[in-house]
């Protein structure tokens, strides 16, 4: 286990912004986890666990601690029957590589999450999902190192209290667990409609009625390729803002002026609406804001034109939030996590 010093965080983050980390270590197995946590306790230093760097930001002052870069690999089938197959997946496995693997084996349950950047270990933290699927749908359990008790533990779906882009790992248990592997259960049955509206529309436009994990994956990849910039070419963190959850009363009021605005039921009193639509209707889609730009095909995405500092990004973020609140009275929330 090699601990590196004074590492540029922007080299590990897809937004390409951020100062230096005092230390960084790559972990590839559970023994590394124990070793690095012993080192952390010995040196009385902060730590932050980083996966693929696609949904994470660093501030200009960097991080006066150690970045634990999770590179634990491995895909192991642990159970199979006539209806499903269950896999234990190393936290450092690239999410889309695993989805490709499941689709190649004609398994359904995660195909609509195709092309989401990052690692599978990051998915339970904020219940990552897209186009009508989320990790909670297939999640069974995870194994993690509990830094408060210094032991490995297993956390079930019930333990994590999943909700829309949320879990206890993002709040009361933030920073407590270092995830080593995630267990998911995939279905052998074919995907069934109705699908997410944009997915169904694209399937219909292509006259596709053979609904398989492969056709759904290909359709989602087509949509994402058209709507989302490649972070290798244009620095970005994917969806920068979460879709907004509002009350049904708020939606009814908005529909008086904007009848085209759709709400997706969250519970009996709340619906989820498109934050991208709010940003677009606020006149910001495609607009340059300082050194950043709201993407012209997906207003949820904030891209880095030539920003060199977190301050540039934060200024653009606050302008967007203020404009949406001024127009609709809705406070939109950042989805991307921050190293602290």
TrEMBL record:
Superkingdom of origin organism: Bacteria
EC number(s) reported in the record: 1.3.1.98
Q: Which GO terms describe its biological process?
A: cell division; cell wall organization; peptidoglycan biosynthetic process; regulation of cell shape
Active site per database record: 165, 239, 335
What residues does the FAD-binding PCMH-type domain cover? 17-189
GO molecular function terms attached to this record? FAD binding; UDP-N-acetylmuramate dehydrogenase activity
| Subcellular location(s) per record | Cytoplasm
Q: Where are the transmembrane segments?
A: none
Pathway(s) annotated for this protein in UniProt = Cell wall biogenesis; peptidoglycan biosynthesis
Q: Which reactions are catalysed by this chain?
A: UDP-N-acetyl-alpha-D-muramate + NADP(+) = UDP-N-acetyl-3-O-(1-carboxyvinyl)-alpha-D-glucosamine + NADPH + H(+)
* Protein known as: UDP-N-acetylenolpyruvoylglucosamine reductase
Tell me which species this is from: Sharpea porci
Lineage of producing organism: Bacteria, Bacillati, Bacillota, Erysipelotrichia, Erysipelotrichales
User: Encoded by which gene?
Assistant: murB
